[in-house]
Design the sequence.
């Protein structure tokens, strides 16, 4: 986690130096991804339109075609408008460092670890493990990583949250758990 | 007399008053904790209360809504971290007052102004909504289509870095809203043979993911934010001071209600706008704005709560949400078999006036809870993020599973959470996605009806010029589009610079 914070501090320093920075690290790539996703959605809509036999202008494909087309064009417009704007990585020639910094911005280590925990939580639930056990593992694991150095306190928090879930959701609201 | 009897229903059921109180109390705390928002809380509640009677479910949600909008001011004043987007403007002067040891005074003023703002918003809702509903009965399909477009454009223009970003998010929402079997032609759209997708994407699942999980993930990007401890003392503002600032209060309330009534624009924009107006129009503030001026709390806190009443107007009369929370409330009402729209006030007046009464009670509870428990409060807002974020994830899991008891809903919810996370990380707004998903039916049905009635798209477009309401809406869309273009913004900047230069010369 410390290494991650150092990296973030480095990124922040770079941002501070380039005061005319207008976009985040990797934002231009994200805009391209958004454009490509729009293009795929548009392709799927055109395909859907081809499958329809009745009047096409008021068909089930009309709205998807219109919105996916607009989405693609708007993404393209944003890419065009932002082409000259600077990111903290503008001017840096070290491609591998740039990629690393952009990934670090998009997915800082803490976020990445929590996403990993979420995936693990989903797997446990999908595997049919009892909801309370899976939740306890997720909560305690997540807390011990994010709130380091407080193992006993985290265990108490976990127990309190589980008691709260049982009391409020199961008893009061009658919610069914996975 | 009828109105009064509808509103008095709340007194016949003390449980409703109790639920409004619980909702307001919980809302204040939810709104105050950075990372938790009213939108998130209400979207989670939709899934837990869908088996409840409609009145009870609405009572607690309305309470949370009012409490959360106000609650954001607490952490804004104490920690310089707005607990909710509507409290962003409050940090500017609220925290400065806290730094001077006047946190108690700041919180007292915020409470009083929020109560006044809510009450004024409720009055406008009570008077204005029936008028708008009557007007809406004369709407044609093309008018609804234009309203849906306008709603998306407002979100795009007011809530984002640029209109394009907001519109892309709106388009993504509209596209996702079309997934599933088309109810009119039974054509399967973008389901890829997955049976789960036939019924479409559940927008409550989308909302929980977009607002809950994404916010938790974004909060983790800033784990080092320092929590500052504060001393809290005198809180109740004097009567004289409240009266002295009444003109500013009224002005801010009007801004709040008007902005709140615009589809897609909520308390956050209302607060910022009224702060800006107050800064420009207050000739002699107590101290300069930004250094702890009481006026800098009065304006945003009145406006963001007045926006609540405003946001209910388009929701209850046109079926178009005024902000993100009313968007969720529409889905809650739909789950309970209600359909907000122009006929709602006539067919179910009890429901309309129940909401009005709940809002009125919520403002009363706001006054009680807002002025008490401040010391405990400061402890709660200091909960470490490392504990809070996993808790939000677990609540999101429970909330999304509770809708249909499907594990797939949990996976979809996380998928939406990731989409929301990346969009937030790169300054794309996520509220238009939800608005888009919700507006899909209104948008698509009225477009298809319009084309079928007029025979073609050109016929539908020409039909706009046959009806004064349609012409008015069309002109509004044109104005909205033009004022958001770069050319207009450059022209406006040039004009302002010229004016300033002239003033300097004089």
Sequence:
């Amino acid at each position: 986690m410390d290494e991650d914070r150092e990296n973030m501090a480095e990124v922040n320093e770079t941002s501070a130096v380039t005061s005319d920075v207008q976009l985040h690290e990797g934002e231009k790539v994200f805009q391209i991804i958004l454009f490509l996703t729009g293009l795929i959605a548009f392709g799927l809509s055109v395909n859907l339109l081809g499958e329809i036999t009745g009047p096409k202008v008021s068909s089930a494909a009309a709205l998807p075609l219109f919105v996916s087309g607009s989405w693609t064009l708007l993404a393209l417009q944003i890419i065009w408008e932002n082409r000259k704007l600077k990111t903290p990585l503008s001017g840096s020639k070290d491609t591998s460092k740039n990629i690393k910094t952009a990934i670090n911005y998009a997915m800082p280590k803490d976020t990445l670890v929590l996403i990993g925990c979420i995936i693990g939580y989903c797997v446990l639930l999908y595997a049919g493990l009892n909801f309370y056990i899976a939740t306890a593992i997720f909560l305690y694991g997540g807390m011990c990583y994010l709130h380091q150095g407080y193992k006993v306190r985290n265990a108490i928090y976990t127990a309190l949250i589980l008691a709260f879930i049982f009391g409020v959701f199961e008893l009061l609201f009658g919610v069914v758990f996975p | 007399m009828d109105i009064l009897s509808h509103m008095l229903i709340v007194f016949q059921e003390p449980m409703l008053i109790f639920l409004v109180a619980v909702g307001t109390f919980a809302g204040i705390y939810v709104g105050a904790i950075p990372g938790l928002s009213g939108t998130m809380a209400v979207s989670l509640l939709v899934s837990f209360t869908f088996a409840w009677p409609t009145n009870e479910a609405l009572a607690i949600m309305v309470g949370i809504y009012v409490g959360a909008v106000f609650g954001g001011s607490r952490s804004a004043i104490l920690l310089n971290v707005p607990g909710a987007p509507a409290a962003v403007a409050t940090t500017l002067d609220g925290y400065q007052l806290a730094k001077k040891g006047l946190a108690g005074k700041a919180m007292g003023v915020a409470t009083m102004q929020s109560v006044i703002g809510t009450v004024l918003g409720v009055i406008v809702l009570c008077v204005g909504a029936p008028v708008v509903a009557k007007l809406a009965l004369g709407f044609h399909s093309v008018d609804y289509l234009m309203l849906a477009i306008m709603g998306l454009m407002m979100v795009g223009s007011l809530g984002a870095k640029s209109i394009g970003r907001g519109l892309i998010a709106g388009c993504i929402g509209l596209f996702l809203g079309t997934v599933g079997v088309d109810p009119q032609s039974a054509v399967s759209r973008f389901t890829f043979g997955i049976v789960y997708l036939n019924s479409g994407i559940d927008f409550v699942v989308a909302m929980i993911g977009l607002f809950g999980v994404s916010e938790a993930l974004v909060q983790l990007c800033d784990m080092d934010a320092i929590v500052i401890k504060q001393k809290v003392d005198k809180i109740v503002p004097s009567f004289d001071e409240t009266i002295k600032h009444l003109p500013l209060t009224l002005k801010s309330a009007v801004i709040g209600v008007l902005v709140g009534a615009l589809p897609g624009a909520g308390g956050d924009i209302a607060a910022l706008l009224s702060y800006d107006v107050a800064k420009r129009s207050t000739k002699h503030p107590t101290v300069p704005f930004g250094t702890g001026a009481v006026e800098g709390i009065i304006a945003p806190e009145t406006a963001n709560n007045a926006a609540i009443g405003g946001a209910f107007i388009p929701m209850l009369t046109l079926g178009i949400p005024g902000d993100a929370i009313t968007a969720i409330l529409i889905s809650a009402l739909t789950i309970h078999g209600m359909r907000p729209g122009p006929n709602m006030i006539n067919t179910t007046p009890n429901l309309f006036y129940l909401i009005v009464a709940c809002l009125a009670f919520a403002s009363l509870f706001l006054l009680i809870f807002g002025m008490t428990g401040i010391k405990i409060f400061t402890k709660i807002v200091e909960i470490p993020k490392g504990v809070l974020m996993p808790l939000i994830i677990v609540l999101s899991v429970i909330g999304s599973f509770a809708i249909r008891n499907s594990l797939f809903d949990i996976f979809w919810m996380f998928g939406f959470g990731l989409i929301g996370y990346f969009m937030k990380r790169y300054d794309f707004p996520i509220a238009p996605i939800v608005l888009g998903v919700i507006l899909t039916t209104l948008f698509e049905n009225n477009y298809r009806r319009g084309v079928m009635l007029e025979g073609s798209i050109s016929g539908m477009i020409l039909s706009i010029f046959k009806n004064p309401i349609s012409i008015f809406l069309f002109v509004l869309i044109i104005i909205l589009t033009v004022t958001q273009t770069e050319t207009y913004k450059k022209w406006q900047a040039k004009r302002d610079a010229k004016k300033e230069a002239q003033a300097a010369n004089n």
Summary: The CA atoms of residues 7 and 69 of chain A lie 39 Å apart.
